[in-house]
Give the backbone structure.
Amino acid sequence: MDLSCLNDLDVKIERDTPLSRHTTFKLGGKCPAVIECRDAKILQATVTRLRDHRIDFLLMGFGSNILASDNGCDKVIVRYTSALPLIQREENIITTDAATPLDSLAAYAADAGLDGLTAMFGIPGTAGGAIAGNAGAYGEQISDHLQSVNVLRKDSSIATLPTASIPFSYRDSPFKHNGDILLTASFALTPLTKDALHAKRDKVLKERKFKLDFWQHYPCAGSFFRNVAPTSNAGQRRAAGWFLEQAGAKDLCLNGARTYAEHANIITHADGATAQDVYELSLKMAALVKAKFDIDLVREVRLLGKFKGMAASDPKGYW
Ligand SMILES: Cc1cc2nc3c(=O)[nH]c(=O)nc-3n(C[C@H](O)[C@H](O)[C@H](O)COP(=O)(O)OP(=O)(O)OC[C@H]3O[C@@H](n4cnc5c(N)ncnc54)[C@H](O)[C@@H]3O)c2cc1C
């Protein structure tokens, strides 16, 4: 693939790269190239060049919400992550670059004596990926305290969007579907003592079954299915893990893919399992819940590339 249009940009390009290197599931075949952008200006220039040269690309953050196909994909991946936090504070407003690790953002807020992001402690991924997926825990979502975002639009313009204008929903936002790329985000937070915030951090990190580096030992992408919206079949119960456990999906395995012993909604793998094994195991799990409760579980993890047995209703494998 000819990427000479990027020659004068300060980007790192890895060619013919397995997606397993860039996803917390540690699975996935090759893509033509992974382009790492180290700041928002370079990201903007890269994306604009790719669009001008009609080179298809997909944007990825840390790859912690993605199951990539064993066949890889034929699109270039633009990766926007930063090892270091890129954050500014003005009074009770903090503004972060989308590449900032989410846990670092939450820790920064706590160190600044600002409350509102404590549920984000210990969630892997970038601030951009979290806003795109409206990440959350403990009944809170990242959009709760979001004030505005700056996005790069498909026509290369930059727009500032107030949160009130963005239709966020459970684990979803327009940014997962409309091609807008999050560059920065501002949060309006509430003062609280640092001691109280640090105590909250300790508590959340202790409570979370899967901490920041959990995926290093158990490759996964967190919860595989979304929690269930209340319906007559779901009753008061909403955690997908509860339905999976009741339906007998807790101890399932398929080749090396298996449910994590302590959490039925997490799929992990070992012993040479493939992404296809993970995908097929997830179909089995969903089928068990369907058979017992007549509830259709909805995947939270995004699929990248093509899998055997994909339903006609599945997206084409790209976003
Ligand atoms: C061990 C573990 C625990 C987890 N726990 C939780 C949890 O408690 N709660 C929760 O909600 N999630 C959880 N997750 C899932 C995951 O961490 C979150 O979904 C995270 O927010 C994804 O961020 P990312 O940068 O990795 O995004 P990616 O996986 O790289 O991408 C996900 C989507 O976001 C889009 N995206 C990424 N960056 C941008 C951007 N700058 N602009 C526009 N779109 C963008 C991508 O195009 C893609 O559609 C967990 C995952 C793991 C591995």
